[in-house]
Design a protein that fits this description.
Elements: H1 6-10, E1 15-19, E2 22-25, E3 30-36, H2 46-62, E4 67-75, H3 79-88, H4 95-114, E5 118-128, H5 134-141, H6 146-176, E6 182-184, H7 187-198, E7 207-210
């Protein structure tokens, strides 16, 4: 049976690196990720639901760039919670409380065995593609000094990040108008999200990404 090397697998991953919470793609594009809170839409009144829909519609109309809405679903692992409850049993003062606690533990365990309890996380991926003119490209590659190239590349990265951060702020502000709170992910959080997305088979609780 043929094996696939890590280098060969990485060719299919579009991510070049992650820096300051920003995803740099191999094609030169940038991506920022916002984690978003949820809304109990079904519990809202009809007027509130209408206001949320109109607010979301207005938010989409203000965008002049593309975004991606990602729903991250995974099965909830309740074993640590059950272990915590079992540790509390000797601390109960009466036999009745110990019996009730044991019955509750068995109820939770049997319920989770019969049904998949899922947790969902909501993300918005914001894109930015730098525009490099022909003149600036020629000027950049004609520089002979390595330090000058590094300085120019650093300045370009900072400018591109500033543009992406403006878009992230705009998206977060627009979502706030619908009652959704959005916060940018940091570098470690982005790495964890991408790892779970590209390596679902290595996780005890696989994650599915729906767009």
């Amino acid at each position: 049976m043929a094996t696939i090397s890590a280098d060969a697998t990485q060719k299919f991953v579009p991510v070049k690196e992650i820096r300051n919470g920003i995803i740099l793609l191999k094609d030169g594009g940038y991506r920022g990720v916002l984690i978003c809170s949820s809304i109990n839409f079904g519990l809202k009144s009809s007027d509130e639901q209408h206001a949320i829909i109109i607010g979301f519609q207005n938010f989409l109309n203000t965008l002049d760039f593309s975004i991606q809405i990602v729903v991250n679903s995974r099965r909830m692992d309740l074993r640590p919670y059950l272990a915590l409850l079992e540790g509390k049993e000797p601390e109960q003062k009466t036999e009745l409380m110990r019996i009730q606690l044991r019955e509750y533990i068995e109820f939770v365990r049997s319920f989770t065995d019969q049904a998949n309890i899922m947790t969902k996380s909501f993300y918005v991926v914001v894109s930015y593609v730098p525009h490099l003119s022909a003149e600036s490209a020629v000027s950049f590659f004609q520089q002979k000094s390595t330090s000058a190239k590094n300085t120019a590349a650093k300045a370009s990265f900072e400018e591109d990040c500033a543009q992406l951060e403006q878009r992230l702020t705009l998206v977060a502000s627009g979502l706030a108008g619908t009652g959704v709170r959005a916060v940018p992910l940091g570098t470690e959080e982005v790495i964890e999200l991408l790892y779970r997305s590209f390596n679902p088979g290595e996780l005890e609780n696989p994650i599915r990404l729906d767009t």
